From TrEMBL:
GO MF term set: S-adenosylmethionine-dependent methyltransferase activity
A Pfam family annotated for this UniProt entry: Methyltransf_11
Protein name as catalogued: Class I SAM-dependent methyltransferase
Cited SUPFAM superfamilies: S-adenosyl-L-methionine-dependent methyltransferases
Organism: Humibacter ginsenosidimutans
Phylogenetic lineage: Bacteria, Bacillati, Actinomycetota, Actinomycetes, Micrococcales
Length: 255
């Protein structure tokens, strides 16, 4: 195994734009939830009049969904709040005629009322259920894979110490918020899946890419704890953490 400093430097050098995680191949693994979000979203998108992907990142996952849709939806749009990702998303979604609007995560959705038959979001930072309900056509569907409470807690608490539970991300709170916005719950379930990091470069790159895991993360601020993770990986072969994923499907009533 390369030495600690070399791996740290490598993890700091990898670009973080987009949501392509192929760099992690052989360096980290994460179990996928049993429901298969991309396949499920592709089925919902097949033949839909209009589909919106909220907080699309680099558009990679949405493009995968659209490739699997048959027939493809008549109109495709996405929002993204991080400027470096906008160009990536436009390139990824251009083959599908997709329109990508740069819009901050907590801003109102820049679309007219009842514009879409389907709204998607995978791992949104913020979920404004009222806005989602507003842009859904009557009878339209919201399908989302959400990050649940204490996702990756083993990693972030190793660096930060014990942290309070984010009750906004509990499954009961999501149900309450969706129903308060007038949406009807169709499906709501949660799974915890295993994550393994096989070198400290993967940990560093992950923390730089998934910025909400340890807000304000820098190597200099956490070097000593990162070295401890490095030693755990050398001893055990991996640093193990667990993600929490929630599948939420809801519908806007027809009347």
């Amino acid at each position: 195994m390369p030495d600690f400093d070399s791996l740290i430097a490598e993890g700091e050098a990898v670009p973080t734009e987009g949501w392509d995680f192929s760099w992690f191949l052989g360096r980290a693994t994460e179990e996928r939830p049993s429901w298969g979000y991309a396949r499920l979203a592709a089925r919902r998108a097949s033949g839909a009049v209009g589909v919106l992907d909220v907080q699309t990142g680099g558009g990679e996952v949405f493009a995968e969904v659209l490739r699997g849709a048959d027939p493809r939806p008549a109109a495709v749009a996405a929002t993204e709040g991080w400027h470096p990702n906008v160009a990536l998303a436009r390139e990824a979604l251009a083959p599908f005629g997709g329109i990508v609007v740069e819009s901050l995560e907590d801003a109102p959705l820049p679309f007219a009322d009842a514009s879409f038959a389907l709204v998607l979001s995978r791992h949104p930072v913020v979920t404004d259920f009222a806005e989602i309900g507003r842009v859904l056509a009557p009878g339209g569907t919201y399908l989302s894979q959400q990050i649940g409470e204490r996702s990756n807690a083993e990693l972030y608490e190793f660096l930060l110490g014990p942290q309070p539970v984010d009750d906004v991300r509990t499954i009961d709170r999501m149900r309450e918020r969706a129903q308060s916005a007038g949406l009807e719950i169709v499906d709501l379930r949660e799974e915890r899946t295993r994550i393994e990091f096989f070198d400290i470069a993967a940990v560093v790159h992950f923390l730089r890419k998934v910025i909400w895991t340890v807000p304000g993360f820098t190597v200099d601020a956490y070097r000593d704890r990162l070295r401890e993770i490095h030693e755990i990986i050398r001893r055990d072969g991996a640093f193990v953490s667990y993600s929490s994923r929630i599948l939420l499907e809801a519908r806007r009533p027809t009347s």
